[in-house]
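tool_call: predict_structure(chain=1)
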Amino acid sequence: MEIIASTLLRNKYNEISRKCKKINEPIYLTKNGEGDLVLMSIEAFERKERLLKLKEELLDIEYKRLTGAKDCSLSDAEEDIRKILKL
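tool_result:
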């Protein structure tokens, strides 16, 4: 975990930008010694967003499983698709 003062962002933006992209992890910015912001590359942000979306989908699937929601097998899904496409 990288922590830097927010004043460095103004003075060393290019260096910090390169570092964000290189480590591909968030950099925490402080202001007056307190946590203030989190800075990360677009790639790191998008990776975290994809991971959160996947976790959300998995939790939804697990919730449905635990509550007894009806599901279908792969062969049932293939049969339904064939019916829809009239194959």
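agent: The first strand starts at residue 2 and ends at 5. Proceeding to next step.
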